[in-house]
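queue> holo job accepted (adenosine-5'-triphosphate)
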Amino acid sequence: MRLTRMFLPTLKESPATAEVVSHKLMLRAGMIRKVAAGIYSLLPLGVRVTRKVEGIVRDEMNRAGAQEVVMPVVVPSELWLESGRWDDYGKEMLRLKDRGDREFCMAPTHEEVITDMVRGEVRSYKQLPLNLYQIQTKFRDEIRPRFGLMRGREFVMKDAYSFHATEECAEREYREILKAYTNIFKRCGLEFRAVEAEAGPIGGSFSHEFMVLADTGEDAVVSCTSCDYAANVERAEIGASEVAAAVVDIPALEKVSTPGQKTIEEVSGFLKIEQASLIKTLIYKVQKQDKKEEFVAVLLCGDRELNVVKLVRLLGAGSMELAEDVDVERITGAPAGFVGPVGLKIPVYADWGVDGIRGGVTGANELNTHLLNVASGRDFTPSYADLRLAGAGDACPRCDGVFELRRGIEVGHIFKLGTKYSESMGATFLDENGREKPLIMCCYGIGIGRTAAAAIEQNHDDGGIIWPAPLAPFDCHIVAVNIKDEPTMKVADALYSELQEKGLEVLFDDRKVRAGFKFKDADLIGVPVRITISANTVVEGSVELKERRGGEARLVKIEDVAEEIQKIVGEG
Ligand code: ATP
Ligand code: MG
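queue> job finished
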């Protein structure tokens, strides 16, 4: 593509509204333009990149045996009434009426439509399994659309749905697609983790999220530095307990006056004791499944946070909340801030970490008072469990490694749905014995635009985007330094043709502007290889090659250019 012919409106300055780097750079590089909040047009460069992502996704889905379909964007309410989600989905679903006053929505996802499609056709286990996908526009009226394509209201998703006769088959397919997704994000050149995730309102028991690691990510992810284990912080298990310290040699309990010192920070500062040696005591009001209410105390090392999900699971609770001040005082005899486990009459649960505290500090259950030299096992005996929010340095539950803490952008999500939709919508098949059963389903999503944005979050510098070669809008970028110089243009035109004939995608900056201006745009757009053609090297039969990712500029003989580029971008 000749730049003089291309619709590529680059911007020198970042628009003030853009907060994250990918949003800024997509606007500046002329990839996208905003139409309304969370609604964007893709310009030619944006289309080129998203087509690259789609191409990789399509290829790997096809290889995994999935078949492409296309479902409508506008979907009638009837299907959603059947599944029960017309009422449940809430305001994220954009609803509309046709001229006959019939209700529709702009589909935020397609479980209902695909289940309807399949129930109409599949009768027997012999027609299974089936995995169908599409790459298509979704609409979700997000409360806070932001970060450009990262969290849009209208966005392109690859969504796939598989249908199975047995649990084993569904789980096998789930593993297959987990592998396909791993290939996809590897081929996109991204640093990512497949993390075990909490299944959201869509339901299901198996769930993995694919997280591209980047500081601007909305999610916190821990991953083991030695094995594959990775999980959302809310979900992460922590490996075996720390070895409990010996109970010997700890002086007797001692009361100390701590007037007005309530928080961990205050007590730690006042007593000059590190936060990790404080025992934090939280009182929770627990509503059991049988609706009975109970108060429990939860102990954590002062520098750690409770993972409420773990406590809910441990207690088999329906719900729980922090106890109100009046309850705390009634139960412990002291206001919040001076509460501790010694002498408490309610069940006490402690995170494993607390077992490592010997001679720690905790509230004395008395106003303005704390206890020194506290030891678990001697002064109180809690039930120990994994209760804290995982963090850097915690032990991996699968191996001897430890966690590192990173932020991640969720680019893909896979679920085992089970029979949620097939049961509510009557999508059944006849098994080998002629018995009617509901289809077992899994679903698999990838955000196409979000993946492109995540690639930029991970690959950029002060000058602009540094595309991983497989996602780059072009393989190479020819800069003719002076278009009035005849030998320069002769070589530039010849190379432009030759490289394209060899199957490379070439952007040719043939504009009549200063070379410095062209270089700035080249850095901004981020094509992997820049070829600079100038009068003084052309006379010697060479041009300058520079890789966008940190490479030094070097002279290459004109006849070797194609081969050199192919080596860099991995084609041919
Ligand atoms: P999030 O937690 O980010 O809202 P989600 O759990 O709602 O995501 P899914 O319903 O699992 O997302 O959708 C599958 C994929 O679609 C996500 O992994 C993400 O890549 C993409 N996606 C979801 N919402 C958006 C959005 N508003 N803009 C762009 N991509 C999105
Ligand atoms: Mg969402």
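queue> Confidence is low (pLDDT under 50) at residues 199-205.
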